[in-house]
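Exercise 3.2. Students should predict the tertiary structure of the chain below and write it as C-alpha cells, then compare their answer with the key that follows.

Predict this chain's 3D structure.
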Amino acid sequence: NFKRVNILISMLQPAISFSFGASKQKNLKIFTGSKVSVFNDDELLCDGFINQITKSTDTDVDKVNYIGRSIIADVIDCTVAADVTNWLDASPKVIINDLLKPFNITADFTEEITDTIDFSTKPGDKVFSVIEELLSRYNFISFEKSPSVLTITKAVKSGNIGTLKFGNTTDILKLVNYQEDDSNRFSEYNVVGDTGVVIQTESGGKAVDETIKRHRPFTIQLDGEVTNKQCQERAEYERTIAAANSLSFSYLVPRWTAPNNKTWQPNTLINIIDDEHNLNGEYLLVSVTLKQNLKNKTAELTFAPPKSFTDKPPEEPTQEFFI
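Answer key:
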C-alpha cells in the first residue's frame, strides 16, 4: 500500500518516528489518532499513533503522508502524571518506573543503579526532562529498543556486531554525509585550581590538541581542593570530548538488517573500513533511518566516535567551607 517509508531510530531521542507515503486513491482508513504497529517483516519495531496527515498534489499523482511516533513519544511531550511526586530513599529505577506507569511504558535497565536518593517533582515538570535529569547523574542514556519499553543503558553497551567496508556495494552504497567541525576545538586546554593547603598555591594541568594549528587556548577554573593530577585528567578529558564531538558521518546501506541478522539498532559498535574517506576503525552507530520506495529498501546509518558518548568527566574537586 505504501510507496515511501521512513523510520528513524536514534539514541539521541527516546521515541521512534515514522512516515508512510501512499497514493491518495488508495483510500486507506487511517486517521490522526489511529494506533499502528510498525514491522520489519515479522519483527515488531514499535507501536504508536498517527499524529499528522499531509496531502500534496503534483502533476503526476495525489499523495498522502501518514506521520507518527511510537507510544514513548508521550513521555517527551506530557507533564508528570504519576501518583507519587515525592520519593524518599528510592532507587532511580523505582522513580523512573513510577513516572512511566501512567503511560503504560516500562523501563528496562541494562545494569542496576545501586544508589538511593530523595527526589521530588513539581507541577509542570515534563516526564522526560525529569528522567533525563536523573540519568545524567549516572551517565546513562535512554531510547526505544523494543515496543513500549524505554531502554536505559550506558552508551556502547551492546558490543561490536560486525564490519562495513566502503567500496563493497553489498556493505555500503555511498557516503551520504560527512561533517567535521572544529569550531569547538582548541589548541590547548588549561585547567587550574587551588591545592587546598593553608597557603594556597595554584595547581594545573594542560593538554594540547596538535590538530588545531592556530593559537586557540581554553582555560577552566576549578573551585575547591584540587590536585595537579585532577587538573591534568580534566584537561585531557576536555580535549578528547571536543575531538570526538567534531566528527559525524552517514552511509547508505542496501538493507535494513545488520550483520547479526536483526534490524539495525543504535548504540552498537561497527568496524568501518574506508580508506577513501580516511574512516578506519571502530565507530558507534548513533541513529538509523530505515527507508523504502517502490524499488528497494535501504538504511541510512549515522556514526560518531565512541568516546563522544563513553568518556565521562573526572570527579569534581571537593569544596570545604569554614565558619
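Discussion points: The helical segments are 73-77, 92-100, 127-136, 228-244, 307-310. Residues 319-323 have pLDDT under 50 and may be disordered.
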